[in-house]
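Can you give me the bound-state structure? Components:
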Amino acid sequence: MLFNSLTFLVFFAIILGLHSLPLNWQIKKSNLLIASYLFYAAWNPPFVLLLWISTVVDWLVAGKMAATTHQKKKTFLLVISLVVNLGLLSYFKYATFVLDNFVFFINQLGFVYHPALPSIILPVGISFYTFQTLSYTIDVYRGEKPCDSFLDFALFVTFFPQLVAGPIVRSSYFLPQCKTPKQATEQQLSWGLSLLIIGLFQKTILADSFLAPVVEQVFNNAMQTTALDNWLGTFAFSAQIFFDFAGYSTSAIGAALCFGFVLPDNFRAPYAAVGFSDFWRRWHISLSTWLRDYLYIALGGNRNGTLQTYRNLFLTMLLGGLWHGAAWGFIVWGFLHGFYLIIERLLRPYFENIKELHLPIAQFSLALITYFLVCIAWVFFRANDVFTAFTMLKVMFLLEHAPNETILLAFSPFMVIIIVAGLFLFQWFNRENYFEQVVQKLPANIWAVFLAILVLWLLLAPGDQRAFIYFQF
Amino acid sequence: MLLFISNSNQRLPKHDWQLIWVITLSIVVITISIWESFWRLRGFEPSLNDDAQLWISIRRSIPPNDPSAVVLMGSSRMQLDFDTQVFKQYTNLTPFQLAIDGTSPLPVLAHFADDASFRGTIICDINEANLIAKQTPSVADQWIKAYQHSKFNAEFEFLLNSFVQETFVFRLPELQPINIWQNITNTGHLPLPFYLKLHADRFKAGDYLLLNKYPNYSIAAHYNMRLERHKGMYEGLLPVDQAIFESNLQNIQSQVQKIQQRGGKVVFVRFPTSGGILELDEQLLPREQYWNVFAQRVSAIFLHFKDYPDLQYNLPDGSHLDYRQAVLFTKSLTRLLMNSLHLTTS
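Here's the bound-state model for the whole set.
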């Protein structure tokens, strides 16, 4: 079920109505759990089974883990959880990719081998809930206390606002909220609804109506584009993916808040980042912290010398890229971010003591350079394949001949420049602010007019209904 | 979110939220009411959108394994010329209108050939240009794919959307602000009620007399525009690649056979054209070289408008019938179809 659908509007109103009835807290949580399964089933009912498998396996494994003191048994139980969760993820997400590449490799060696390719549908959000349940089991393995209520645990795995595209919530963050009855206060409900509206506006209007057509035009005709087209398409995609994904996170946080639940931040003005460590503290925070806590640190983190640290960083980013999807473009994207992070670490000792670099203008320039390099990586993320991405980059850097005539409509460049520049500057000037602070400074009537404009825009110019980009991950 | 988002109750903005919602809702309700009334006063009426959701809904309603199911496919000529209510009145059969504006019928034909549960009759609007065109991904492929991967709640979402579209004028595609803006920049005036009216069963009634009421426009101007577009289409198609023509014929024959083996029937209809458009068709893709070869090579039923005086019209834009003409045309075509398919009157 998409947030930007009328079905969701009806569904949300009914569930919110039920949640506000004077019912027992256990019943309210059961309502939310059933609603979450309905939310997931609306897309493809049989895949609810996967959620159940993940929930039951991790519940049982964590319970048995906590009950034993034998380290080997604990490790064995952890392996069971990893095999089941990552096994399902691998099958649904990576089987076709592995077979494709195997066939290509075998054919390159001269063997003729053309097996029937499996037709596997990727269950929406599987990467998100797999990581969420895994974090619980690993936490218990590391000594955390397991959850004592199956209902709470099932709700933690399935809670519909963040089920299919995050934020990836940790059990230590969510489960304590299930202990006491949650009913949104007037402030929470109002702010939650405001966030839902803002998130939908970001997704439906900014990402889908304004930016997606430009991005599709450029990336789907990548061999007929000029250098300027490619640059504009790349900048447009940088804004589109932000508004799309951050729009979903904003809506998810807002929807959860309407029920009295608090979800973690997922974005903090990422395009105002100065450097790549800073970028990953601001972009998809729930994934980057997950990768840090459960992969980078598990690999040894920065405890075993410089070379090992670089290797761990690199592997973490590579797997982070692969988490997004089974395609070489995502792997190259992860590779580039790993490379950026290593270069930054290598350069840091030489630059951190230069006072001039801490001046506002220098920081702004560094943020621009960071954004520029992030955009280069986005080309691999969005292009139809790696070959196309390289061709586009060659055209962008004038290393390859390209057509002279733009394929974009006359007003597209201005629209992209205004949106991207507006986004960058807004994030830059508010890079250390909470959004709530910005809103708090506004007079109530101005905020009301702002909300009314967003609602009217959503009603009058809804555009095409597109799925969220991160649903496929 | 642009910046940090709330993960703490202490950070929530402390405003007079009741006042905020009263102001917000008042602005929204008043603006929408004015906007809706304005366009209704200018003659607009609510209508469904001719989009993938509507197409999928009709596709989904075709009963499986029903030999009496009649499916219409093709492009805009099928949608404008074939009055579904007239056909229903004469045959007591409800036709399923699956023609898609501006596309070749071949992807939809292939889709039905592959559907083992389809045993009914296909009436397919096809022309010589469709037969020589290379098959590239089109809107039809997208809609078929959307049907095959439609979500569990798609029907419910369609019902809600239909309710909204049939209730409010402001949901019309031509009244979306970007389209209003484009209309003003292109024509110098606000949009006027569209000359095509979509019915719930996807029949499009073309009221060509409305064109004469548009400022600085007329049926003649529309005809010229259509003729130029037709010329443009041929520029992209010619010269004819005989290999593509041959491959298309083979594919169509194999698809028709699949349908016939299940007891289904296929009728290909060449819908009428007139004036410069017909001249262009006859000059560039002569009937003897293309339509007649098609009719010889494929084991289906063929109806060409030139063979029947009742099907020949002077078309307002050279390519489509006015809704008043469509009534008479459909009566004549239905009579021919009933003879060809051995149907009985109700």
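A couple of observations. The CA atoms of residues 96 and 119 of chain A lie 8 Å apart. Chain A touches chain B through 60 residues (CB under 8 Å).
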